[in-house]
């Protein structure tokens, strides 16, 4: 079974703090993704990575950065947390881009920025 | 523009009755369609997908979905709903273009099954 884990289920941070969200997958997947989920807005793609050290901006990258130094780990960084970044953050991974590959999700990190 | 729509924010069903959660899409070329389910405070779990072949796709937990090309729809169905099916359901479509095959998600439909 594919397993995608996220470092924290719940996180409380203060405005201006630097926040690191970690995601690890154990299936040697090339592609990894970070989404945020907000009520009424569904899932929105923040960043994705096709392979180690590669990254691409998604739909809402502002205020975020990412790091992928190892294949199994994809980190999302909030450089200076703001209250509008309070959200549920979901990580996902997938085998290399071919037709029909399934994307697998981690359990999510619920972040509250005060 | 590529898009996916879930026209209902919420669907209410009595236990034992059939359920349908609707999804329509707009994508150029052949779509790859997915359904995911999310239980409270959890990540998304894969239910089923349509890639090619038989238009009726069977997935986890007794769910199935029918791909209808003429109506550009991929509705999720189950013959007999369970209270434990209550969750948030997301439809997603993949296209190949500038984003190299990333998923586009609908906004989600909350399914409530009452005893």
Model description:
The complex is a heterodimer of chains A (114) and B (115). By secondary structure, chain A is mainly beta. Chain A is 0% helix and 53% strand. Chain A has no helices and eleven strands. In chain A, strands 2, 4, 5, 6, 9, 10 and 11 form a seven-stranded mixed sheet that branches. A four-stranded antiparallel sheet of chain A has the order 1-3-8-7, with no helix packed on it. In chain A, strand 4 and strand 5 form a beta hairpin. Chain A starts with a strand and ends with a strand. Chain B has 115 residues and is mainly beta. Chain B contains no helices and twelve strands. In chain B, the strands form three sheets. In chain B, strands 2, 5, 6, 10, 11 and 12 form a six-stranded mixed sheet that branches. Chain B has a four-stranded antiparallel sheet with strand order 3-9-8-7, with no helix packed on it. In chain B, strands 1-4 form a two-stranded antiparallel ribbon. In chain B, a hairpin with a 4-residue loop joins strand 8 and strand 9. The radius of gyration of chain B is 14 Å and the shape is globular. Chain B starts with a strand and ends with a strand.
Explain the layout of strands and helices.
The complex is a heterodimer of chains A (114) and B (115).
Chain A: E1 4-6, E2 10-13, E3 19-25, E4 31-38, E5 42-49, E6 56-57, E7 64-70, E8 73-78, E9 87-94, E10 104-105, E11 109-113
Parallel strand pairs in A: 2-11
Antiparallel strand pairs in A: 1-3, 3-8, 4-5, 4-9, 5-6, 7-8, 9-10, 9-11
Chain B: E1 3-5, E2 10-14, E3 19-21, E4 24-26, E5 32-38, E6 44-50, E7 56-58, E8 64-68, E9 73-78, E10 87-94, E11 103-105, E12 109-114
Parallel strand pairs in B: 2-12
Antiparallel strand pairs in B: 1-4, 3-9, 5-6, 5-10, 7-8, 8-9, 10-11, 10-12
Largest interface: A-B, 25 and 22 residues
**Dominant shape of chain A:** globular
Say how many strands of chain A there are.
11
Instruction: Quote the average pLDDT of chain B.
Output: 91
Structural class from helices and strands of chain A?
A: mainly beta
Major β-sheet annotation of chain B: 6 strands, mixed
What would you report as the Rg of chain B, rounded to the nearest angstrom? Answer: 14 Å
Strand tally of chain B is: 12
Rg of chain A, alpha carbons: 13 Å
């Amino acid at each position: 079974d594919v397993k995608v884990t996220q470092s924290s289920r719940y996180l409380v941070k203060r405005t201006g703090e630097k926040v690191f969200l970690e995601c690890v997958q154990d299936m040697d997947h090339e592609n990894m993704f970070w989404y945020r989920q907000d009520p009424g807005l569904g899932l929105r793609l923040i960043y994705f990575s096709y392979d180690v050290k590669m990254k691409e901006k998604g739909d809402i990258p502002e205020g975020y950065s990412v790091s992928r130094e190892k294949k199994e780990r994809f980190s999302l960084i909030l450089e200076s947390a703001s209250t509008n970044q309070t959200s549920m953050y979901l990580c996902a991974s997938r085998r290399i881009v071919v037709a029909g590959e399934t994307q697998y999700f981690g359990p999510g990190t619920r972040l509250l920025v005060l | 523009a590529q898009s996916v729509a879930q026209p209902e924010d919420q669907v209410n069903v009595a236990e034992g009755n059939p359920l349908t959660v609707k999804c329509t899409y707009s994508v150029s070329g052949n779509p790859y369609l997915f359904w995911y389910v999310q239980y409270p405070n959890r990540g998304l779990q894969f239910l089923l997908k349509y890639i090619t072949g038989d238009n009726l796709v069977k997935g986890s937990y007794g769910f199935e979905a029918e791909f209808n090309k003429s109506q550009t729809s991929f509705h999720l169905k189950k013959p007999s709903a369970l209270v434990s099916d209550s969750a948030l359901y997301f439809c997603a479509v993949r296209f190949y273009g500038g984003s190299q095959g990333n998923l586009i998600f609908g906004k989600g439909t909350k399914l409530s099954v009452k005893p």
